[in-house]
Amino acid sequence: MRDLRALRALRARFYAPVASFRDPLFPGITRILPVPPPSTVRGLLAAATGAYTEPFVFGMAAWSEGHGIDTETYHPIAADGGNPAAGGRVRAVKGGTTAKDRPFLAGVHLTVWLPGPDADRFARALRRPRHGLRLGRSQDLLHLTELAHVVLEPAERAVVGHALAPAGGHDVPYAHTHRLADTVSTDRLTTSWSQYLWCDDPAGPAPVRGAHREAPTNNEDTQAVWLLTP
């Protein structure tokens, strides 16, 4: 285990009324993930700074208030050019316009911790983002609800909550393991993946490994934060 030390960090909280994170491990099926992958959060923050990529270290926690299924109309463009799009639509022929059910999450809450010297840069970017803040798809708008400077200290026990933890980060028995994308290359040809632990029901105080927590004001157990590397 790498040595941990106390760090100053920026804590940013976001809210999205609706979001949908398609699971790329199930092609052709509209299965979604219950939590945004780290690559999605990196894309969000790159949109704020205006950079093509942001290979930074950060911690995150996320949860949603509910979920549902919507019906969406798809207009796939034929690879051979046989059914070109006109005004964003294609003809309703075989392989053309079709309706599919699309699951979605409602009331998505995201917290991101950004440690180190780039914290002030991200704070400025989030207050005046270069591009619109979206969580995944172009229509899934995201709202910044809080910016605060905190101290993260090494922890052996903390509130796991809905934090995203690397495999082996804790032993909460009802945590789910998800294989999530860490980064996606700018040409979208290469994706790096890792195994993560996430609790759909918030987990309380528990022993943690390789984690920080927000420095408490008294003896309470505070939120666990695992810093994720690109």
Features:
mainly beta; six-stranded antiparallel beta sheet; 2 helices; 9% helix
Task: Provide a descriptive summary of the structure in words.
With 230 residues, this protein is mainly beta. It has helices at residues 38-49, 119-127; strands at residues 7-19, 59-74, 98-115, 143-161, 165-166, 176-184, 191-198, 203-214, 224-225. The chain has a 6-stranded antiparallel sheet with strand order 2-3-1-4-8-9, with helices on one face. A 3-stranded antiparallel sheet has the order 5-7-6. The radius of gyration is 19 Å and the shape is globular.
Distance between the termini: 17 Å
User: Any idea what the shape is?
Assistant: globular
| Helix and strand pattern | EHEEHEEEEEE
| Largest sheet descriptor | 6 strands, antiparallel
Strand order of the largest sheet: 2-3-1-4-8-9
How would you sum up this structure in a few lines?
Helix content is about 10%, strand content about 45%. The protein is mainly β and about 230 residues long. A hairpin with a 6-residue loop joins β6 and β7.
